[in-house]
Amino acid sequence: MEFTEILPITKKERKLWTYVSLTAGVTEEIIYRGFLIFAFAFIFQDFSIWVIISLASLLFGLAHTYQGVMGVLRTTIIGMIFSILYLSLGSIFPLIILHFVIDYVAKLGEKEIVK
Question: What is the pTM of this model?
Fold first, then answer.
């Protein structure tokens, strides 16, 4: 199965994709940035922040295995960027919005096949 197979096609699917994008943005950012970085830093106190970021980002990437090897690599890198932004900004809200936008925009390149 290819990643493009799960993208929305119909108007109804496109409408639902908005909610999927929003929930993914909220839940994944809370889990992988808000919780996991904190938990790893607490559990592995001797690890540098870069190791913590790398571990959290790798798990984020692995959660996207349905996108294939390149998808895992891409989301791991995005996870690292998001983690750095999270720690730099001190807020998870901009990342939730950015995550939503990235997921939401994924549907824009697809043509509607069924009305």
Answer: 0.82
